[in-house]
Design brief:
Order of helices and strands: HHHHHHHHHH
Length: 147
């Protein structure tokens, strides 16, 4: 699993690095959140094997990881490019918020490889998720993950 995840992580980082060089990427209003996608994916993978994360939360993590790597989702990246990751990062933030509430937040912090505070990023994404994804799709995403 590590090689496959590492490959996906590196591919995702390269995709966003390349996108950032375009006019669209440089000026996109969700740029900050979209650029966190590789680090959010990395965090999901690390938490899925952490002994301090409850089994029920690991099942949710596995679902979000599968959603990230699946070419078929509500906003397909193959069609809309990196913008298509808004649903992936929103769903990741939703599940990470549940994990933060069910465990010691330090469990999440110790696996965060991105910039800034992971907990703050999760809250900022959740505050904008409805706007990023659209309220109808956002509700469908949340319904995919049972509390």
């Amino acid at each position: 699993m590590a090689n496959q995840d590492g490959d996906y992580y590196q591919q995702l980082r390269a995709k966003f690095k390349s996108w950032l060089q375009t006019d669209e990427g440089k000026n996109h209003k969700w740029q900050e959140y979209l650029l966190a996608a590789p680090d959010l994916f990395h965090l999901l993978c690390k938490l899925s094997i952490d002994k301090d994360v409850p089994i029920k939360d690991k099942a949710k993590l596995a679902g979000v990881i599968a959603y990230f790597v699946s070419p078929i989702d509500l906003i397909p990246e193959a069609i809309v490019g990196p913008i298509g990751y808004v649903d992936d990062i929103s769903l990741a933030a939703y599940v990470l918020n549940q994990i933060i509430n069910n465990t010691d937040p330090e469990v999440v912090r110790r696996h965060w490889a991105g910039e800034g505070d992971a907990l703050e990023l999760v809250q900022r994404i959740l505050a904008r998720a409805d706007e990023m994804v659209g309220s109808g799709l956002w509700q469908k995403l949340k319904n995919m993950i049972k509390q």
